[in-house]
Amino acid sequence: MENNEVEFNWPDFLLALLITFGLLFATYFLYEYENAQRAAGAEVEQFIVYGAGNSIDQPRAKHFIDLGSDLSLLRKLDLLAGHLSVLEFSGLPIEIQKIEKVDGNNIALVNLREYHRDRNNSDAASSRQQATWRSHYFRDTSDGFLTSSILKATLLQKDYSGHWIDGVKFYYENRPIGQGDSDHTYLDSVFYR
Question: How far apart are CA 51 and CA 149, in angstroms?
Fold first, then answer.
């Protein structure tokens, strides 16, 4: 094989196809859920998913989603995190672990996870093609600051007047994000509304 030829990699192609269909299915499911809520005449509340704005510290409202007002706080957060994941972060997992009381405040514990590739596949070129938190969203200062701002703004919903969490604490791969984890991750404390 000559140096300028590219070898087709079926496992990576199938993995990319599976991820794409998974994201499409998740988006469709969330859309249908919202439509079912409206059609059933259930009371819904509108939430904002933020995205990149004119400044890295000022994300802007990009998407509006309706969630049933009868849902638990944990379920609303979980659905909001699912929308955020699909709409802004290539479907990377954003898991709401739990809501715990800290000094009288409801704090959501949020875990950012990577997709886990087949450990037997050592093709470095193909592993770079898949979005990750570290290599895509926290790769440099501006990306890290923007990503951190979007995550905080969406999950804290500062303009929402209903019953909501008081703060959020972030984890990465089930470990609390702390100072020194990354120069470009600005999620190393509890953030309050």
Answer: 9
* Tens digits of residue pLDDT in 81-127: 999 999 999 999 999 999 999 999 999 999 999 987 655 555 544 44
CB proximity list for 116: less than 8 A, separation 6 or greater? none
Structure tokens at 33: 């859920």
Tokens linked to 77: 């957060």
* Strand blocks (E) in the chain: 44-55, 58-68, 94-102, 105-112, 167-172, 175-176, 191-192
The Cα 186–Cα 140 span in angstroms is: 11
Query: Rounded to the nearest 5°, which phi and psi values hold at 148?
Result: -60, -45
Q: Residue 135 CA to chain centroid, in angstroms?
A: 15
Q: How far apart (Å, rounded) are the C-alpha atoms in residues 60 and 83?
A: 15
The first and second tokens of residue 157, run together, are 């919903």
Residue ranges per structural domain of the chain: 10-192
**Strands 191-192, 167-172: parallel, antiparallel or unpaired by DSSP?**
antiparallel
Kindly report the pTM of this predicted structure: 0.76
The SS3 call for residue 25 is helix
Q: Do 169 and 190 form a contact (C-beta atoms < 8 A)? A: yes
